[in-house]
Amino acid sequence: MKKSFKAIIQAIIVIMALLTVAAWHTSNAAAADTSLQRVKQRGELIVVTSPDYPPYEFMVNENGKSKMVGMDIDVAKKVAKDLHVKLVMKSMNFDSLLVAIQTGKADMAIGGINPTNERRQSVDFSKIYYSGGQSFLINSKDVNKYKSAKNLKGATIGAQTGTLQYGLAKKRIPNSTVKGMDKSTDLVLALKTNKIDALGIEKPTAEAYVKNDPTLKMISSGYNLNKNDVGAAMAFKKGSGSLVNAVNKSVDQIQKKHLTDKYLAAAGKYMKVNTVNTSMFHYWTYFAKGVEYTLLISLVSTFFGVVLGVILALMRFSKQKWVRGLAISYTEFIRGTPLMVQVMFVYFGIGVVINIPALISGMIAVSLNSGAYVAEIIRGGINSVATGQTEAAESLGLTKRDMMQYVVLPQAFRNIWPALGNEFISLIKESSIVSIIGVTDLIYQLNIVRADTYRGVIPIFVAMVLYFIMTFALTRILNHYEGKMKHAG
Model confidence over 278-291: pLDDT tens digits? Predict the structure, then answer.
């Protein structure tokens, strides 16, 4: 017990050392400002956003193809053009945008981001390129109840986690209960299903929802705010002065020529394209792509999870104490931390040292997670093999390796097949967590469709059916092979 505890402590020390190296790497990178030079040399401006916030940024289904559009996308295009580089857009959750630029995953973040004093301590900001104002969305049936923000006293307010609106609601609406969610689409659905009374949101986005959904109304927030703190700005890694100065030249031109008005008009046209046909069949390519990525991640993670699980299980039976301790430490640590944290650590944490793409990061994290659980399943299967079987193998002169390969493991897999099947099925569902780093799996595509169509429930139902089809088909396949194993036995 003492040895395994010591091994766990050693594993934690290794992880802390890795984090220290990552922090050192980040601080060194920030010491010399080569931000603009790096972008110029690469020939690309990598920008992250959360495309579920019309009219700032959202996805449009144009001729069956998915396209990222909106005012912020046009602003980013203008910046890239002025820098004479190619624009590369990446999507992820809003609350991961600043983390992405802090860890070097992107050069710039854009997405209706308010340059608050708290955020300025962690990242650099460009000049304000647009100030749309703050408002609340309410249900149409409540227009007489909530005529202004003053009537929201004691109400339940919704706001996107990590946004200015969340903090303002907590500070400015007396006796209110503030509920935060990652996606604005989830918050709108919560409003329409009466889980919240009002939704704090940027005025242009509120107007977009009201225009396309007659069940919603907008009221002014009544906030008296400093324009320089609540407008939208682009965010950069701390110490990126040269890049910020270059981007500010584009912002000056945008403001001088009133280009945001032009960009908003273009976004409005795209929004009409989306709302002309909001049937789920019209968005079948979105769901198909989501299923494709979900199955790809699940298959790859299942394969490597089983390989890692077998290795860890065999390590548990090693005569070397340090080998057993290492396997125990890994298994306990992985099972003791959430998969979401592991995904973020692989992508953002390890990604500081080694730049791993989002899809690969998701596969690695899910594989490492699955391996720990599969190891325990296999260990239980090995222990379930009768000792008489191993004694008979030894009497025949089989080596320990041959005995494990030809006698123990085949019987163990037969015993644990139902448990392994459950792990594989769970993997399909749990892999949805990779959407937080921008992997376009089924959950990610579901949120895009909800943002595009302003329909909250139907896309969720479609995703449920698709998950059921995948898991049911896998269950039938697993049952088929389980029957063959029993027959062979």
Answer: 888 888 888 999 99
Q: What are 236's strand-pairing partners?
A: 124
Among the listed residues 238, 237, 239, 234, the one whose alpha carbon sits nearest the alpha carbon of residue 33: 239
CA distance 345 to 412: 33
As a whole number, mean pLDDT of residues 58-73 equals 85
DSSP characters for 311-357? HHHHHHT-S-HHHHHHHHHHHHHHHTS-HHHHHHIIIIIGGGTS---
Same fold, 33-129+231-276 and 134-224: yes
CATH of domain 134-224: 3.40.190.10
Judge: domain 33-129+231-276, CATH 3.40.190.10.
Answer: yes
pLDDT tens-digit series, residues 376-410: 988 888 787 777 777 777 777 777 777 777 777 77
Pairing of strands 156-160, 198-202: parallel
SS3 267: helix
Q: What is the pTM of this model?
A: 0.77
Q: What letter represents residue 60's amino acid?
A: V
Hey, what CATH topology would domain 282-488 get? Answer: MetI-like fold (1.10.3720)
- Contact call for residues 99 and 349 (beta carbons, < 8 A): no
Structure tokens at 178: 């503030």
The answer, yes or no, to whether residue 105 has pLDDT greater than 80, is yes
Residue ranges of domains in the chain: 33-129+231-276, 134-224, 282-488
